[in-house]
Amino acid sequence: MENFEYQCQTKIIFGKETENQAGEEINKLGKKVLLHYGSGSIKKSGLYDRIVESLKKANVEFVELSGVVPNPRLSLVKEGVELCKKEDVDCILAVGGGSVIDSAKAIGAGAVYDGNVWDFFEGKIIEKSLPVGVVLTISAAGSEASNATVITNEDGPRKASSHGNIRPKFAILNPELTYSVSKDQTANGIADMMAHIFERYFTNSKSVDLTDKLCEGALRSIVKNGRIVMSEPENYDARANLMWASTLAHNGLLGTGREEDWASHGIEHQLSAFYDIPHGAGLAIIFPAWMRYVVKQDISRFAQFAREVWKIDECCDEDMAIQAIEKTKEFFKELGLPTSLSELNIYNEKFVEMAKICAGSGRRGNFVRLKSEDIERIYELAK
Amino acid sequence: MENFEYQCQTKIIFGKETENQAGEEINKLGKKVLLHYGSGSIKKSGLYDRIVESLKKANVEFVELSGVVPNPRLSLVKEGVELCKKEDVDCILAVGGGSVIDSAKAIGAGAVYDGNVWDFFEGKIIEKSLPVGVVLTISAAGSEASNATVITNEDGPRKASSHGNIRPKFAILNPELTYSVSKDQTANGIADMMAHIFERYFTNSKSVDLTDKLCEGALRSIVKNGRIVMSEPENYDARANLMWASTLAHNGLLGTGREEDWASHGIEHQLSAFYDIPHGAGLAIIFPAWMRYVVKQDISRFAQFAREVWKIDECCDEDMAIQAIEKTKEFFKELGLPTSLSELNIYNEKFVEMAKICAGSGRRGNFVRLKSEDIERIYELAK
Prior knowledge:
The structure is a homodimer.
Chain A: E1 4-14, H1 22-27, E2 32-36, H2 41-44, H3 47-57, E3 61-65, H4 74-87, E4 91-96, H5 98-111, E5 132-136, E6 148-153, E7 158-163, E8 170-173, H6 183-201, H7 209-231, H8 236-248, H9 263-275, H10 279-294, H11 299-309, H12 317-334, H13 351-359, H14 372-381
Parallel strand pairs in A: 1-8, 2-3, 2-4, 4-5, 5-8
Antiparallel strand pairs in A: 6-7
Helix pairs in contact in A: 4-5, 6-7, 6-8, 6-10, 7-8, 9-10, 9-13, 10-12, 10-14, 11-12, 13-14
């Protein structure tokens, strides 16, 4: 087990009708808030009205910035930064999923920084930020309690992440708000949360028995409840277990004491930067390919994954490992996710370029340190 | 799944030699600290010197209060409160196990309160407190990241708990510091952390699949690593997994979305108040008796406990439930813990009195609401 520091301060407010507490919670962070959201589906659902009412009740003044899209754009972040500075905003309320939250985090960091906000995506650590609160509407990215944000610079195209002191101050999680999430988006979210656990589970750190078991338990719960919500989108308890799992999958807890990997996320980020595909779908394609490429690094860990997550019981570790990778892929298929690049009409034209950007000046990942050529082969395996 | 609010702000600093960061961390909380500890074993081990050196390096002034005993006493808490007020202390550093931390929390609350600190143990919620930091030396109570404290009023005798805004600001967890914990104390600690999970696991809340699995995983990890440390007290990884498990068992995470029980803790508190026995040993005696008394409330939950924690696979839920209770008792026995009151020369003289105090004016517990007569019967079953 590795040494670690861990602190997740995000206050979780979980359950039915909790979105009505948004105003009261924001009021603890400031008197003027940027209300940040996506395409406007929150207006159709009535959520926007409830949030606005809650803000008014709490005497919180607000300005708005909508228009966040999946793979959130730097241009909108810059617009948000300007708006916060101009309007002298105290804090940000992100109402939406991971894209809206990531966008809000980047705006929060940029609003108290004199330089170009993209600096934070080129290696600068975020030390301070406007406080961010969240009303979550999609179980997926775990951004509501994570210390990371991922933004796409359209001028690259380049999708990059930044870390730092940006965990939201509070996150309101009402599972009912996810009833209306489409099947596709629900499936993308399930792949995303599983991927967040995979990045931590596949490690070279030895003797991490406790977090192994927590990862395995969370994965089994996601598989079980994931299956339920695909056929019963309004099953409260399944949505609730899945929603809490999505937060715990990425608030850092499951990686404590472990060296994490994160190669597959890097490999996927180039895919969604170049082709603007949903992050979850990209992960569903990349992860099984990555697993096939790296399985020999630690057959016994993959066999444990087979036994504890997929309940595969064979005599030979190698067979179990291979079957577990197949099972993972089959599960993604069962959810209706793509599991090959060709299904999205992505062929090998840009594999070399994407692999080079992904590897950057060095290597990617920790479980196996991947060079540009390795990443190219993983794209090939994902074809 | 129930609605919940959850926030655990404690910064965890985990790993080898981390105690040397105590000064630097305390320095963020104040310039003058009360150094609070137990019997002086930290002086023999050299830990005291390292802490003092770390405080000096960080230019933190300190005053000392030692002498905390298991089942920490109100009299020492009051002494600490006076000392903090007199010396104008900014914060408290607890170096020790659960008793020292609980004592520090109570002192912290009392130091910024004008009334009698015992008020907080008679129902008053702790709203503010001096900030507390921890260097943990025993894996057991989980007080290093919990919002609770338990103090014994010698004038009762009465052992009572209080809750509130008292989670430590940081907790330094170096598993090496637990190498020297005796077999008895190690075993008490294992029973304590398992009990903290049992109090959350046995619930009437339905569809709490995710936290069920997290509880089960943590329990299995405790059983596995508990066995290892009993024969290999200096096995770093086993001590490390156990130490992190003890914190996670009681930082509130495993109870999210669940109605918790806490009857067994109440029943045990009277035992250790009347007979001054170690809390962990008391729990090892009480919990199997409580389980036998309440098993019929939800046979299928006990069968799940059997299957997922003890890997018992029988055809009939009732048999599995009974076997799981036996297994729990056997495991405590294997650790060298007492599993009956008679082993500690406790007979039925005070059962009626203890049961009455425990039930208070109402009932105790949530899984089954226990009246005074029920509690008496549980003491009888534990004979």
